[in-house]
Design brief:
Blueprint lengths: L2 H6 L1 H18 L5 H6 L5 H14 L22 H6 L6 H14 L8 H4 L16
């Protein structure tokens, strides 16, 4: 079947009518789920825990990094933390909370300690862009 024949077929349009709204309904909330849960006045840790639990129940395996921290753009790096330490530096307490979440909610073969995965020793200070200082 050619593309022009497909466009003229009833089956194509039936599938399009079903899948286009369905894909929008599924895809629209995903980028906003954190904000939706925060609007319920949940603490950030509980938001991440709920999201991780829901994804795990769906069969996903996820790696947590800055999930729930709001560090998704350069504008958000205009903080004392980045000004003092540069880009790429990790806060030990934040990393330990991430390790705790993974140990609690992920199906890992063994629990890991924070000191096993945390270090800033290999980083050189990468200055934020001048517009961010």
């Amino acid at each position: 079947m050619t593309a022009s024949e497909a466009f003229l077929s009833r089956s194509f349009w039936l599938l399009a009518i079903v899948f286009v709204p369905m894909s929008l309904a599924v895809a629209a909330p995903l980028p906003n789920i954190e904000n939706i849960l925060r609007s319920l006045s949940l603490p950030p840790v509980e938001v991440v825990q709920r999201e991780a639990r829901a994804l795990k129940e769906c069969g996903f395996r996820i790696a947590l990094d800055d999930v729930g921290a709001g560090n998704s753009g350069l504008e958000l790096m205009r903080t004392d933390r980045y000004a003092q330490n540069g880009i790429g530096w990790m806060d030990r307490a934040k990393m330990c909370r991430t390790v705790e979440l993974i140990n609690t909610y992920m199906d890992v073969p063994r629990k890991v300690g924070c000191d096993e995965v945390f270090t800033n020793s290999f980083l050189t200070k990468i200055e934020p862009p001048k517009s961010m200082r």
